[in-house]
Amino acid sequence: MAKLYFYYGVMGSSKTANALMVHYNYHERGKKALLVKADIDVRDGSNIIKSRIGLNHECELLSNILNYSNSQIKKYDCIIVDEIQFATKKEVDFLSDIVDVCEVPVMCYGLRADFKNEPFEGSERLIILADEIHEVKTVCWCGSKATCNARYNENGIVREGEQIELGANDKYIALCRKHYKEGNIGNEK
Q: What is the mean pLDDT of residues 51-70?
């Protein structure tokens, strides 16, 4: 039976690397997996998924697969979606339809919450609809489990602003809850 999976973690927890490895594993076993990402993520080009450790692969945009017919979807053994936090409720509902109607598993990777510890629309919907939810873990600079995405600049942690501001290590750091609350980004930055 196909399932809808949500793999969430803070920035830098290797979500994208995991998605790319799953895609590779399907391919290595002679299976066909479709790699997809949210349209807004254009940091590495519109049709490329790239991890921080350098793995990358061509992908399809989420908005494009909304137009796929059931027969097109059924050609795949799995759909793998990166940056799912940027998806709309409608897009997540469509992914759940792929699972329920086409019986194709969908594996989604993304952030659970933004830099204010508020949920993203796509992640919130997945928490409600997913058959399985798994955390991809990493650590804070102090060694404790990182659970918060902190946006920062030369003045320290940024607490206000638009929910979406694309960036990586240049703008965000994963922190434990304590250091997030304190605004302590350690000596790394």
A: 86
Strand locations in the chain, DSSP E?
Answer: 4-8, 33-37, 48-50, 56-58, 60-61, 78-82, 106-110, 132-135, 148-153, 156-158, 172-175
* Residue 37 falls inside a structural domain: yes
Going from the C-alpha of 183 to that of each of 46, 90, 156, the distances in angstroms are 33, 35, 7
Strand residues in 60-105 grouped as ranges (E) = 60-61, 78-82
User: Which one of the listed residues 58, 60, 83, 165 is annotated catalytic?
Assistant: 83
How many residues appear in the chain? 189
The answer to whether 6 touches 123, Cβ cutoff 8 Å, is yes
User: Which pLDDT score, from 0 to 100, does residue 166 have?
Assistant: 64
* Region 50-72 average pLDDT: 87
The reply to whether 45 and 108 lie within a common domain is yes
Mean pLDDT for 96-113 is: 96
CB 168 within 8 A of CB 54: no
**pLDDT of amino acid 159:** 78
pLDDT at 105: 98
**171 and 104 within one domain:** no
Active site residue 135: no
**Average model confidence (pLDDT) across the chain:** 89
Q: Would 141 be classed as within a structural domain?
A: no
